[in-house]
Structures are given as C-alpha cells and as structure tokens.
Amino acid sequence: MRSGVISPSRRRLLAALGTVGFGGCLSLDDGGSGRSRLGEVSFANSANRPRTVDCRVEWNGEIVHDRRYELAADDSDGVDESRAVAPQTWPDEPGRFSVAARVRGHEWTRVDPGNWGYPDCFTVFGSIDGERNVLLLTSQDPTFCAGSSDA
Question: Residue 133: what pLDDT?
Fold first, then answer.
C-alpha cells in the first residue's frame, strides 16, 4: 500500500511517462484471466492555479475509492503540494476495475485495463492541465503492484 505525496521533478516524470504511457497498447493477451492488479493512482497539477480533482475506482462492480484531492498550483521550484498519490483502498489481488477522474465540475475521464489486454499490473497517473482537463496516463510497471508475478 502506498500513500503520501510524489516528488519527482516534473521534467523527469513527464519524460518517463512519455515512454511508459502507451506501453503495452498493442498487447491483447491477458492469459485468459480478464483481470489486473491496480498499483498506484497519482495526480499532478500542471496548471498555474489550484485544482480540485475527483477520483473514483470501481472494483468488480463496486466503488472502492471515491475521494477529492486539492492540488496546489504548479510551482516550478519543486513544491510537492501540486502532486498527490491516492491511498490504496482497493484489493491487492487481480480484478476487473476502472479508474475515473475529473476536475471538479467537469466531465469524467476513464481508463480500463481491459483496453490493454488486462496486464498483470496497471498504474494510473492523472495530469491536470491549464484548461481543466485530466489526462490519464497508464503504465504496466510491476514495481507498483504488490504480489505482481513480474515484481
């Protein structure tokens, strides 16, 4: 279980996400399980004003995480309040889930690991831009999932 605030530099974080954000998109083999583990869910505000982000995780048809995060304005001097990691309120075992997020008062953006062939481990990073859009990037890095067969 991970919680707290993430603190990598924005440049390093976005560079890494540029390479992993689309990893596995062409992989459609889920080994027949139709389930994935959900690792970390985190957010970063790149806007120059504070944003409120709603996050919802649905697990096997049940909402298991429904929280609001207050993110400070992006501050290029490395202030960490513009970033947050959701506390893990979902099970460690594989399941069918989706992650949805929105800037308060705007449309939900949703990701589902089924669109990537149910990888063993699935993590979500939400980036909030200046226009109040939430871009949900995904990774299949097994280091974020407890008990992952690749960890």
Answer: 86
State the pLDDT at residue 24: 32
Query: Which positions ≥6 away from 40 have C-beta within 8 Å?
Result: 2, 85, 86, 123, 124, 144
Highest CATH level, class, for 10-144? mainly beta
- The b-or-e profile of 52-91 (16+ CB within 10 A means b, else e) is ebbbbbbbeeeebbeeebebbebeeeeeeebbbbbebebe
Q: Which residues of the chain have pLDDT under 50?
A: 1-32, 148, 150-151
State pTM to two decimals.
0.73
